[in-house]
């Protein structure tokens, strides 16, 4: 807004002059509008005048003295002993680990080269100490057949023993709906093909480093997982979470019996320790009998970790 | 070809014409022009082919290194390579610094991948992330704004020695740690880098058996890879708004701390933002990612890069555990790279946007309020003067 003589008021000058409203009301109005727009765009924040502090909070650094002062105790297992009891949070690890045990159990019971079971969701769970050495879990969970992608809700009960003389967990679960997926024809076809074949099959590294498996080898990958499920079930505790990392080798053996027989080397991944554990198994499979593990043996496998002997 | 159109010396034009050898100048120019265009397209096609990096395959380290150099060549105004350390086997540890150059010191976002060698989907994600932000900032106003206000520091592979080792053959594929020899009397290689950071080091979730996969090293940041991050981020900690570290597998978004006795002061905020990220992930392909502190949803641990970053005061620090849930585990098939990266990008972007907006929209509001207060204060004094 120019004065009569054509020049503009000094509205960019000292603050005091800004507030001489009579001289430059429109400049003030413009500033007010700009500020109003800014406030509108960013919302009226719950603001203090101090500039934002990107967490200069000293409380970010926790106390250096932990609540449990016993440093000499091997901390790895200590906090695990204080296990959740009563209603379980389905997202927390006690329920998730228990559900994984149910998965291994279901695969030993219902698994097939054409039916592989995985946990989808844990809905609810409950845990209680039955005795000094036994804990019982109850779970409601959804499982699915990974191959046909059908889902079923199941209930399961497990009990773990702890302390000395650790036993495999006992599992009771009924997911009969899974049996309704009809795979008989595929199972018979697979059985006949490899029963009557002139050559014995053998496959390695299922999956390979890039996650690939040849389609006609997939049933053997599944068989390796199923056989491993017996081991994973036996080895599971409340402090473990097992998956099959790889079927390193699966080789068919000759047999006169009414089943196929395999020698198998699998690598299990145990999540809590992050270790890869090698197992060798001898197992059989037929459509009628499913998987039966005849022998299993844990392999010590350090060589890829070990340094070469020092030469000087 | 076009040279012949210039005419044949030694033969008169009249004769050339008669012999059908004389061509009009325009035709000759057309010919040259066409050839030039053809040449350009050939070069262009070659350039385009070279630039068609396959983000949906796993790449060995040499290809990732070349790709980083190519990113700088393709986007010289926005991308630089920063070398910030050396691995045990003396390889350069590098990151891509990505952002619009404003000439001022900017706030920053940190993303690292491949602390654990066998988690191949993680470096794949970092490469996808870089491609994505470089593609979208030109057309997406929000990303452009973020590129102006912050710099992205992305380390595609931190544990380079370990990653290279996993590519040697099928028997080395499941290696996790780095490749340092550890203490003299140790029969095995490697320290777990994600137990080696100075954050409640050596307390929980570790084993002091040096052959163990959770061996935390001889002391905090004993490993050159952990030391590199500690020094680089540590000397700039005030600029970082957000620190994301990418792993697999498990489909989790983990918040600090890994020690069950400590809770981050902004735990509620971390959980809220984490759950927002998980929802963003789910919207892409329907995959469920569980959100929580590690001791609740996975296991207790100590010495992680995430915990260390949070302790430095970086407010929003998360670990992503990408696909899958154990079916393929570390060996995620290549046909899952794309959907995994897409959903993880969505989740990461949610966190990054929150971190950015908290600082930058908030600053706008604060400036506005400051101006208002000055106005009002002066208005009071002005009124009395008048």
Automatic annotation (TrEMBL), chain A:
GO terms for molecular function: metalloendopeptidase inhibitor activity. Belongs to the protease inhibitor I47 (latexin) family. Residues 52-66 have a biased composition (Polar residues). This is Cystatin LXN-type domain-containing protein. GO terms for cellular component: extracellular space. Keywords: Protease inhibitor, Repeat. InterPro entries: CYSTATIN_LXN (IPR049897), Cystatin_sf (IPR046350), Latexin (IPR009684). It holds the Pfam family LXN. Residues 52-72 are annotated as: Disordered. The keyword NAD does not apply. It comes from the Eukaryota. The keyword Repeat applies. Residues 84-185, 202-307 form the Cystatin LXN-type domain.
TrEMBL record, chain B:
The active site is at 321 (proton donor/acceptor). Its cofactor is Zn(2+). PROSITE patterns: CARBOXYPEPT_ZN_1, PEPTIDASE_M14. It comes from Oreochromis aureus (Israeli tilapia). SUPFAM superfamilies: Zn-dependent exopeptidases. Keywords: Carboxypeptidase, Hydrolase, Membrane, Metal-binding, Metalloprotease, Protease, Transmembrane, Transmembrane helix, Zinc. This is Peptidase M14 domain-containing protein. InterPro entries: CARBOXYPEPT_ZN_1 (IPR057246), Peptidase_M14 (IPR000834). The chain crosses the membrane at residues 27-48, 363-385. Residues 57-355 form the Peptidase M14 domain. One of its GO terms (biological process) is proteolysis. SMART domains: Zn_pept. GO terms for molecular function: metallocarboxypeptidase activity; zinc ion binding. Belongs to the peptidase M14 family. GO terms for cellular component: extracellular space.
